[in-house]
Amino acid sequence: MTAGPDGYTGRRVLGGAALAAILSRAAAAQPGTGLGAIARQHGFSYGCAVLGNLLQSNPTYAQAVAIEAGLLVPEYEAKFAALQPQEGRFDFAPLDVILNWAQARSIPVRGHALIWHEALPAWVPPALAEGPARARGIMQAHFDTVLARTRPRIRDWDVVNEAVANPPGSDNPSPSGPLRPTPWLAALGPDYIGMAFRLARERDPTLRLVLNDYGVEEDTPAAEIKRGWLLALCRHLQDQNVPLDAVGIQAHLQMRNAFSAPKFTAFVRNLRAMGLAVLITELDVREPDRVANGYPARDAAVAAWVGNFLGAAIEGGVRTVLTWGLIDRYSWLVTTPGVARRDGLFHRGLPLDWNAQRKPMWRAMARVMGGQV
Ligand code: XIL
């Protein structure tokens, strides 16, 4: 057993030297077939979100990603603020780090995210507020440059991220539904979503266009409402002949909420019955407020949760699964205040543990994507 951030080993607390020794062994000891290859052998695709600076600076991280991932998505580098920090000044250098790393290993990369209410550079919200014509111009200029530049390498983009509102009873309920109030909605009205998909299709007719969202996975009253809102939005877009190819379901799961496999499978089937592909785009797991004692019990519970969820997703027709990160140590569940635990413990919601070792979640994913239930 390897140590966790709190030094827990099941036996004793490790010192720095012992930890370093384990880390270097961890880097060397990733034998056998990775999750990406296991998935591919069974008709699935598995990948993860990556950070370019870690791919460059951290060999353990880069090696683990190279072994496990058959698909990558930039965790930050393709967001609006990263790509166009000032109006008309585009910066593709951070994204290129990921694209080049992936190309050298023949790993495809998906894009995330063209239109979102977060990761907007400071200049965008006031500029959007100048009026609809200006807002449309901003969207268009961003798509023109970004889609032309990424066209040879990225064939699959989250065009709009998190457009659906959070119903009452959610963690962060929106003041009104069913669309989330965002600077884009305020500037352009509800048609901003269709506009974004149309612009993307015009610029790149064979690009896969994805509507990505969260809060639709679990068996809670809020998720039930949000599933209805997301389905209604997809139906509305199709009625308007908006080119929508797929729905991405983020799947930031929370074990304090209930989960119903039959309900989730039915939801995925409903989307697929509309002719839409369904991807799991950002899978990770937050444990409940009170956790079991020790990693074995915690990891087993997380693995069972993920196995149940992924089984339901695959049953509904999902074939592409990405986790939001790969190694617990670098997970936003650990590094982002407000998402991280407040009790001094660290979430263990990704396939590899703090020291890049495969853990029960990895095995659950390998089992489910490997065709065993
Ligand atoms: C998160 C990143 O992981 C964090 O590092 C960043 O601070 C905030 O954004 N849904 C999404 C992702 O679509 O882009 C978010 O990524 C996580 C929630």
Features:
globular, 9-stranded parallel β-sheet, binds (3S,4R)-3-hydroxy-2-oxopiperidin-4-yl beta-D-xylopyranoside, 14% strand, 373 residues, TIM Barrel, single chain, 15 helices, alpha/beta
Question: Helical content, roughly?
Answer: 40-55%
What value does the Rg take, in angstroms? 20 Å
- Give the count of helical stretches: 15
What small molecules does the structure contain?
Answer: (3S,4R)-3-hydroxy-2-oxopiperidin-4-yl beta-D-xylopyranoside
Total domains: 1
* pLDDT averaged residue by residue: 93
Structural class: alpha/beta
Beta-strand content bin: 5-15%
Please state the second-level CATH architecture.
Answer: Alpha-Beta Barrel
Uncertain parts: 9-17, 19-30
General form: globular
Compressed to H and E, one letter per element, the order equals: HHEHHEHHEHHEHHEHEEHEHEHH
